[in-house]
Write a structure and sequence with these properties.
By secondary structure, the protein is an alpha+beta fold. The chain has a domain of 83 residues. 17% of the residues lie in helices and 22% in strands.
């Protein structure tokens, strides 16, 4: 009788994947490290062709910080102006899970929030 060896499972590696903009559904450009934001260490973010700004919340747990970074990014680093923006009046906000956009990236990775990495997008009115 032949016994099969158990295969070793490879660790889940995040593949380079593309995510669509929550506003125009075009592919978002690769996020760049930005320092003109609210948090001191910076964040990963950028701007879509439709004019929407976006940041990546890699843990899925820092939505408040992501929103503050996003507002500062949309105001070119002017924190006073960013804190005066009113949701619904000055901008529209949408959130999208990265796991929903890429089926091959599904699966729970230790240390992430219940929804995994999130894309937060803001469009000024």
């Amino acid at each position: 009788m032949l016994l099969k060896k158990k295969r070793k499972r490879r660790p889940l590696k995040p593949r380079s994947h593309r995510v669509g903009c929550p506003f125009c559904w075009e592919w978002l450009p690769d996020p760049q490290h930005r320092l003109d934001v609210f948090s001191g260490e910076g964040c990963q973010g950028g701007r879509c062709e439709c004019g929407a700004f976006f940041v990546v919340d890699e843990t899925g747990k820092l939505g408040g910080q992501a929103l503050l970074d996003l507002q500062a990014l949309a105001c070119d680093g002017d924190l006073d102006r960013a804190m005066q923006l009113v949701s619904g009046t000055d901008f529209e906000l949408k959130r999208k899970s990265v796991n929903d956009a890429t089926p091959q990236f599904r699966g729970r990775v230790q240390g992430q929030g219940s929804n995994g990495p999130q894309i937060w997008a803001l469009l000024l009115k």
